[in-house]
Design goal:
single chain; mainly alpha; extended
Length: 282
């Protein structure tokens, strides 16, 4: 290589090095900046800085999860609403929609209806934008859903906008406020229907209450069965430990826990004796 070429290469190298050093007006690359900052921190300050980054990451994750869960609940509510309104749940042999929700998805009937209410209300309020719809939670939807169904989407939007406008000092409108104002204005029921409701509505309420009782009874039964299974499992483990001549637990702690089990079993038996219906083995 000639002297001229060597000079040109050296000149180009100087220019490149200068350009990288002053890239972005002297700004450093992220990795360079992080390394430089870490070198200037004490160990305690570095730990604090790293923990702040962890906290920020956890916060972002939780916020993303919250938004994802909200979208999921609305989407599932919309799909359940379509299945309910179209009667498609009957294709699987269920007598009631609540039975379909429990049998097919393992959810309580009330949970399925809460998701439907949330989807119906969010859909009605969608023209008001995310600043409104994103604030609607299940408790709000429960109070607003009757307005959507009996008074329509537009009436619901007017109702919500009025209450939000009346809120002072940025105070949030709660579910209790929605419910009180709705009842005061006579919203949420068909035109001409008394506040008590007609015979059809009363019958529907009886059906809903019966389904709710079934759900509660099933939960209680499952809880008792799970407790019995757990006790029997503990007994088997105790027998295995004794067969190996091992000390399976601390006697003092076990004495307290066994006393709790005996006490709970006695109370369960007393309550069960008072439940109407045939006795076990009858």
């Amino acid at each position: 290589m000639s002297k001229a070429s060597d000079a040109a290469a050296a000149s180009f190298g100087d220019v490149l090095e200068f350009g990288l050093a002053t890239r972005g007006g002297g700004a450093q690359l992220p990795a360079q900046a992080a390394a430089a900052a870490a070198a200037e921190l004490t160990p305690a300050e570095r730990l604090e800085a790293l923990e702040r980054r962890i906290e920020a990451s956890v916060g972002q994750y939780q916020e993303s999860l919250r938004r994802l869960q909200a979208r999921h609940r609305v989407e599932v509510g919309e799909l359940l609403d379509e299945i309910n309104e179209s009667g498609l749940w009957q294709l699987q042999g269920y007598e009631k929609f609540g039975h379909y929700v429990k049998g097919r998805w393992g959810w309580d009937r009330s949970y399925g209806y809460r998701l439907i209410d949330l989807a119906v209300v969010r859909r009605a309020l969608a023209p008001l934008g995310p600043s409104v719809t994103d604030t609607v939670v299940e408790s709000h939807a429960r109070e607003l859903a009757p307005v959507v169904r009996h008074n329509g989407d537009e009436a619901t939007r007017d109702f919500v906008e009025t209450l939000r406008a009346e809120a002072v000092d940025g105070k949030k409108v709660t579910a209790a406020v929605y419910a009180a104002r709705r009842d005061k204005e006579g919203l949420g029921r068909p035109s001409g229907q008394s506040p008590i409701g007609d015979s059809d509505v009363d019958h529907e309420d009886e059906v809903v209450d019966a389904e709710l009782v079934d759900d509660v009874a099933e939960k209680v039964g499952l809880g008792i069965r799970a407790a019995a299974d757990t006790a029997e499992k503990a007994l088997r483990q105790l027998d295995e430990a004794l067969a190996l001549d091992l000390a399976p637990f601390h006697r003092a702690e076990a004495s307290v826990d066994l006393s709790r089990i005996r006490s709970a079993a006695v109370r369960l038996q007393h309550r069960a004796d008072g439940v109407p219906g045939p006795a076990a083995g009858a």
